[in-house]
Automatic annotation (TrEMBL), chain A:
It comes from Aquibacillus halophilus. It is found in: Membrane. It comes from the Bacteria. This is GerAB/ArcD/ProY family transporter. InterPro entries: Spore_GerAB (IPR004761). It is a multi-pass membrane protein. The chain crosses the membrane at residues 14-36, 42-63, 83-105, 117-137, 149-169, 189-211, 223-244, 272-297, 309-332, 338-358.
From TrEMBL, chain B:
InterPro entries: Spore_Ger, UPF0353/GerABKA_families. Keywords: Membrane, Transmembrane, Transmembrane helix. It comes from the Bacteria. It is a multi-pass membrane protein. GO terms for biological process: spore germination. It is found in: Cell membrane; Membrane. This is Spore germination protein. Residues 1-33, 520-550 are annotated as: Disordered. Belongs to the GerABKA family. The lineage of its organism: Bacteria, Bacillati, Bacillota, Bacilli, Bacillales. Residues 9-29, 535-550 have a biased composition (Basic and acidic residues). The chain crosses the membrane at residues 288-306, 327-349, 419-438, 450-474. It comes from Aquibacillus halophilus. One of its GO terms (cellular component) is plasma membrane.
Automatic annotation (TrEMBL), chain C:
This is Ger(X)C family spore germination protein. One of its GO terms (cellular component) is membrane. Keywords: Germination, Lipoprotein, Membrane, Palmitate, Signal. PANTHER family: SPORE GERMINATION PROTEIN B3. The keyword Heme does not apply. Residues 223-383 form the Spore germination GerAC-like C-terminal domain. Belongs to the GerABKC lipoprotein family.
Length: 367, 550, 396
């Protein structure tokens, strides 16, 4: 177990963290990603990816059940030994680090282009990071509870948004189905599966805190299902309201969706709702990743408390993020060429190796 | 936060140093104060006491001889004003000086000491207590009892004669209700325990009492329902109370600050009330009530956030209406917290959020206003806070003058002079009214302060700042605990049973269990079945024609 | 203590300096209308800016409620930034209601000037795009209008209300336009706007001081595009035909002859279905219009409210509609531009067929497209009275 062992997360808190994490930064980018490759069938991609995502988290919960009291990193060293396990941990840790810088980049990108255009990106990031540092210092249990407070807001606002958009749906935008065959759809699913479903591997670092072992699988499935539902609905709405072309062309189609709301002349200009949903979910995503980063690092150096390293590591991220990612175009190609394949390695192949090795170990002991 | 704890430690160290320095004079004092025990000589004792109390004018010390023949000396001491003079006259002085002469003491064992004699046969006062040392003697005298000392005895006798002028039970001034009991706690501890006892006649209501305050020697009572309250929390409360080492306790707020979990928060983690019904319902939910002598405000622990948004009247109104009103309070809470900051954010950062017509009308009002919206808002909010504080401390008669000055001079004139825009006045008014809706005064204070913080964030980063502020605020709230109970329960960690009575209030029959984290045992409190429409009281329908013809 | 101080300093530094994006309301020039013209190789941008004090303020003078500023530049963005030289405050684009494109610009192609509109973060998507007919686009923004002090908001409202109640206009939002421009199977249309009366006079306050304003802004019918170039204009009936086929009609009126006069019908609900059928490897389109109408005005000599007569009337209407729709169709075919999005419908309903015919769609496929028009009217209501009082007065 990483961090402080006193902390306890309830099943409901785990579920809400999974939901918020999965929506995370994805909700703003995914429709555009999918529409780029799958055009008007983006929503089918989303469904396929979500179904695959459900299988992925089912696999994660199987992995968890091998050693419920151990975090993923501890599992890896325990099962694969110090060296191979260490390699797995190193790759995964680097991945988490890149992930958190990417999240920061996403946030900066959005704010810098849409909301705070003149504000230096460092200020935006420092402010956000300080918030995350403060809350992470309060413990993962506290992050869980906070997620419980915010989840109803996120879901409620999302529902509100959907209701307001009912008036501007155009079902013709969905036609024709599968115009270019199945491949573009699967291509889209390939993206969506890695971002965000395979990123859920990070929860295996937190699951040892959950107070009821048997409920973890339920949380995983429930969380993924709800978040997947939200992502599918979002993509669906984007295609229905904006059309595949506009969705693909915009960087933040969901934000444009918010701009489209116009009900009875007074309920309009509601993109702030989208911004709020997104801020909250991306905050939780970063908080969870950041917690895992600091807690496992402090665990590695055998420190008693992870709190002292929050500030240095946080500031490192703030500095690294703009250095690693310099432009929208660069991030897009980085995503495609490096990050998505890496996600598949970290989120699928490595855990698979750990799982198989663990099973063999179990069997040997069983005999 | 860590720095703050450092600071606390530093002050602690300082305090210890101070103690060490003070040690020597204290020892001298003790020597000077003569022995603690009561000496055989009555005159000596009386002299010492008189000296120790500095010959205070209100302490009355009398020395006289008992009976006609049996010339035993006896000393009577009490504090004028604290002891009820009729009780002292009737039951102590008269008994000792007059009645005892006519008493037939033939059958009584003359070998017995005066003390025993009086204790068993003569004194008709209600409560007698033996005192064994001078310190206690003084304590009893100063708390209103009458103390008898006897020549040749090292044990004194204290008669309960407490009785002083006190305020009667009146309607509480801080938490008023339209429907519900109108009585309020008073400054007297005994009256207050009685008020609660009158509501809960159960033998499970236990009252423990202790003295806090080295100089003030204030009575503090801890009330709880045995078998309902969580034993761990009871123990914790007692532990924290015992730790208190302070010279004086004048109000329960001082106790509150000394025993709360977290000092560096704006939010109250103990509930205070002036209403016996609130205290009683708290007890029934498993909370612990702390009553401090000398103040009508009693403390309830543990306290959670939702409690501060509730009024006792919520339970005396229909549940649907009460729920609606509760939700309204939460809306008001958010308005009071966020309206000025949202206004700043929208008008200086996110003008695209406003409909064009609204934007134009706001912009036209802002024409010619010399300050940025943020300064304007701060100006008005600070002015309002000053007005409120002035109105609060002023005698009632002057209060109306302040409201006139506030409304007319500051509001209207500032707008007409073009210094402040009209909308700003509306914004401030809305926040002010909303902040009055929050039932708890101390939570209201927290909101007042936080509002300024949010305004600052909004002025620098717009909505982004506000949302980050909200995240930090909620994280802070979830991290708070009151005697181990998470402050935001039953919302986070969520608890479906508890949520029946948090943001909304379900009908009483649906509030089956007590708050889980607070009570933790004997959970079921209500087994009334839901009222059914086909109750037996309803008359079976007879043939309508026969009835209606009449 | 020092640490606390440090945190406070960092925090206050962040906050005190954090005013990069702050803009006070009274520092903004709220821009509601934008006109883009092409002058030689440069873009001329005209911005209509509100004067809030004159619109909603307490002390309103006789000064005008809006002012316009003009600047030229190599791109729209550059020209817009060049406006800061003349404009007293920073232009604020979020409340843009209207973009008027000059006719000359439109005939040369509008694609290039639209990029900025969709790229800039301040711009929203809820403004209408119009084409100025005959005049410069900038002149449209220079006319003061009575009743509504903001001319652009007058035009905005006219578009919305005429779209709802009259049918031959169509408000086009940016993303619709872009979607159509980028689609190979669809072509856009934009509503035209022009000034009636003296343009120079329209800019003075006198224009709104008269009951009958000498110069007014008037909406015209639809300008049709081939790809991003304006190729022609539809007249009233053709515009109506367009809206019928596109299922844009919400409410309109139709006039039908009868004995001794005519009868005007209010069409309050229409539903158009476009179906694609494959016929010998070629697409065949069926447009089916189904309308509910009520009688709005009767000027006939005879009683037309009998069941038989009503049926007759409905049939006449059907025929008229078919004619009108055909008229529009023919115009579009003559101009060789598929403004109805038939190509898009084929793509949606039969992608394989579309792949076969999409080569040179506008010039060949569309021109030779076989379009069947079906129309059906249901006369449901007769208004607040049944039989006209004229029949009794004149008939007996």
């Amino acid at each position: 177990m990483i961090g402080s062992s006193k902390e306890k997360i309830s099943q409901k808190q785990l579920t809400s963290m999974i939901i918020l994490f999965t929506i995370g930064s994805a909700i703003l980018f995914i429709p555009s990603f999918l529409a780029n490759v799958a055009k008007q069938d983006a929503w089918i991609s989303a469904i396929v990816a979500t179904v695959l995502g459900l299988f992925t988290v089912l696999f994660y919960s199987k992995l968890y059940k091998l050693y419920p009291k151990k975090s993923y990193f501890e599992c890896a060293t325990f099962i694969l030994g110090k060296w191979i396990g260490g390699a797995v941990i190193l790759i995964t840790y680097i991945y988490f680090f890149i992930l958190s810088s990417l999240i920061l980049w996403d946030l900066g990108e959005f704010l810098k282009t849409q909301v705070l255009v003149q504000t230096p990106i460092q200020v935006i990031l420092i402010l956000f990071m300080l918030t995350v540092i403060y809350t992470v210092r309060l413990g993962i249990e506290n992050v869980g509870r906070t997620s419980e407070v915010f989840l109803p807001w996120v879901l409620g606002l999302f529902l509100l948004m959907c209701v307001f958009l009912i008036w501007s749906l155009e079902k013709g935008n969905l036609l024709p189905y599968l115009e270019k065959g199945v491949m573009p759809v699967l291509h889209g699913s390939y993206y969506l599966l890695s971002f965000p479903y395979l990123e859920l591997i990070i929860f295996l670092m937190i699951t040892p805190y959950v107070n009821k072992e048997t409920k973890v699988q339920k949380s995983f499935l429930q969380g993924t299902l709800v978040a997947g539902g939200l992502l599918i609905t979002t993509t669906f709405l984007c295609i229905l309201v904006l059309g595949a072309d506009v969705t693909a062309r915009n960087t933040f189609p969901v934000y444009v969706l918010g701009k489209m709301v116009s009900v009875g002349e007074f309920l309009e200009r509601l993109e702030i709702i989208i911004a709020i949903i997104w801020f909250l979910s991306i905050y939780f995503k970063l908080a969870i990743v950041f917690y895992v980063l600091v807690a496992s690092l402090s665990d590695f150096v055998k420190a008693k408390d992870y709190r002292p390293i929050t500030l240095p590591l946080g500031m490192l991220l703030v500095v690294m993020s703009p250095i690693m990612f310099t432009s929208t175009m660069q991030v897009a190609s980085f995503d495609k060429e490096v990050f998505f394949p890496l996600t598949y390695i970290v989120g699928f192949f490595l855990p698979l190796i750990v799982y198989i090795a663990g099973k063999i170990k179990h069997k040997k002991r069983g005999i | 936060m860590k720095k703050l704890t450092d600071w606390v430690n530093e002050t602690k160290k300082k305090r210890e140093n101070m103690k060490e320095k003070n040690k020597d004079p204290k020892e001298q004092n003790e020597q000077f104060n003569s022995a603690h025990s009561i000496s055989q000589s009555l005159t000596d004792n009386l002299n010492t006491i008189s000296k120790d109390l500095g010959g205070s004018a209100d302490v009355i010390i009398r020395e006289f001889e008992l009976g006609e023949t049996d010339q035993r000396k006896i000393g009577v001491m009490y504090t004028d004003g604290l002891a009820d003079s009729t009780t002292v006259q009737e039951f102590v002085l008269k008994t000792l000086m007059i009645d005892i002469r006519s008493a037939h003491l033939e059958n009584i064992d003359f070998e017995a000491t005066t003390l025993e004699l009086l204790e068993k046969h003569s004194l008709s006062g209600g409560q007698l207590k033996k005192v064994y040392n001078l310190k206690n003697v003084k304590q009893h005298i100063l708390s209103g009892d009458t103390v008898l000392l006897f020549d040749g005895e090292t044990v004194g006798l204290s008669v309960a004669t407490k009785g002083w002028k006190q305020r009667g039970v009146e309607e509480p001034s801080s938490q008023t209700v339209v429907r519900g009991p109108k009585e309020g706690f008073t400054e007297s501890l005994r009256t207050n325990t009685a008020l609660i006892r009158r509501k809960i006649k159960s033998d499970n209501l236990w009252i423990e009492q202790m003295l806090i305050g080295k100089e003030t020697q204030t009575d503090v009572a801890i009330l709880y329902m045995k078998g309902i309250a969580n034993d761990k929390i009871i123990k914790e409360v007692k532990k924290r109370l015992k730790k208190i080492d302070i010279d004086g306790v004048l109000e329960s707020a001082m106790i509150e600050e000394l025993i709360q979990d977290e000092t560096f928060t704006l939010f109250p983690t103990l509930y205070n009330t002036e209403r016996p019904d609130v205290a009683a319902s708290g007890l029934l939910e498993g909370r612990i009530v702390i009553i401090v002598d000398g103040t009508p405000f009693v403390l309830l622990a543990p306290a959670v956030f939702v409690q501060f948004m509730q009024s006792s009247e919520d339970y005396y109104q229909r549940s649907d209406i009460a729920s609606a009103i509760r939700l309204l309070r939460y809306v008001a809470f958010m308005l009071a917290l966020l309206v000025p900051s949202a206004y700043i954010a929208v008008t200086t950062f996110h003008q695209e959020m406003l409909p064009t017509t609204l934007l134009v009308s706001l912009a036209s009002q802002r024409e010619g206003v010399p300050f940025p919206a943020f300064v304007e808002a701060i100006l008005m909010e600070v002015t309002f806070e000053i007005l409120r504080e002035a109105g609060l401390r002023m005698p009632r008669a002057v209060g109306s003058a302040i409201s006139i000055v506030g409304a007319l001079v500051l509001g209207q004139a500032a707008v007409e002079a073009g210094i402040i825009s009209n909308v700003m006045v509306i914004v401030v008014a809305l926040t002010a009214i909303s902040s009055f809706v929050i039932p708890s005064y101390n939570l209201g204070m927290a909101v007042r302060l936080l509002r300024f913080l949010f305004m600052l964030l909004a002025a620098a980063f717009g909505m982004y700042g506000i949302i980050l502020g909200i995240i930090i605020l909620v994280s802070h709230l979830t991290s708070l605990r009151s005697f181990g109970v998470p402050y935001l329960s039953p919302i986070a960690p969520s608890n479906k049973e508890g949520q029946r009575d948090s943001l909304i209030r379900l009908p009483i029959w649906a509030l089956i269990s007590r708050p889980r984290l607070i009570s933790q045992k004997n959970m079921i409190r209500d087994e009334t079945p839901a009222p059914e429409p086909n109750d037996s009281t309803k008359e079976p329908e007879k043939s309508p024609s026969g009835e209606s013809s009449k | 203590m020092k640490k606390i101080l440090k945190i406070i300093i960092i925090f206050s530094l962040l906050i005190m300096s954090g005013c990069w994006d702050r803009k006070e309301l009274n520092e903004l020039a709220i821009l509601t209308g934008l006109a883009i013209d092409k002058e030689d190789d440069e873009y001329k941008v005209t911005a209509q800016v509100l004067n809030p004090g004159e619109i909603a303020g307490k002390a309103q003078s006789t000064r005008v409620a809006v002012s316009t500023y003009e600047a030229t530049g190599k791109s729209v963005f550059e020209a817009l930034r060049a406006l800061t030289i003349t404009s007293p405050r920073k232009l604020y684009l979020s409340h843009l209601k209207l973009v008027v494109l000059g006719e000359e610009l439109a005939t040369q192609g509008i694609g290039q000037s639209l990029d900025f509109l969709s790229r800039d973060h301040e711009l929203r998507t809820d403004f209408f795009i119009l084409i100025s007919k005959e005049n410069d686009a900038s002149s449209i923004l220079k006319i003061l209008t009575p009743i509504d002090k903001i001319p652009t908001s007058k035009i905005f409202d006219s578009i919305e209300s005429s779209e709802e109640n009259w049918a031959p206009t169509k408000g086009v939002h940016l993303h619709d336009l872009i979607a159509k421009l980028s689609s190979e199977s669809d072509n856009p249309v934009l509503t035209g706007v022009y000034v009636e009366g003296d343009i120079d006079f329209g800019g003075s306050v006198e224009n709104v001081e008269r009951i009958n304003s000498p110069s007014v802004i008037s909406l015209d019918y639809l300008g049709i595009f081939k790809e991003d170039k304006l190729v022609g204009w539809l007249n009233k009936n053709e515009s109506k035909a367009f809206n019928y086929i596109m299922d844009n009609v919400k409410n309109t009126v139709g006039v039908e002859k009868c004995e001794g006069g005519n009868v005007t019908l209010e069409i309050y609900e229409t539903n158009t279905e476009v179906k694609v059928v494959e016929d010998n490897g070629l697409p065949k389109i069926t447009v089916k219009v189904e309308s509910d109408v009520s009688i709005g005005e009767v000027r006939c000599k005879e009683n037309i409210l009998g069941e038989e007569k009503l049926k007759e009337l409905a049939e006449k209407l059907d025929k008229q509609t078919r004619e009108v729709l055909n008229e529009g169709l023919i115009t579009a075919k003559e101009l060789q531009t598929d403004i109805f999005g038939f190509g898009e419908q084929i793509r949606k309903q039969n992608p394989k067929l579309w792949n076969k015919v999409k080569e040179n769609w506008n010039e060949e496929g569309f021109v030779h497209l076989d379009v069947q028009i079906e129309s059906h009217y249901n006369i449901r209501r007769t208004g607040t009275i049944k039989e006209s009082f004229q029949w009794k007065a004149s008939g007996d």
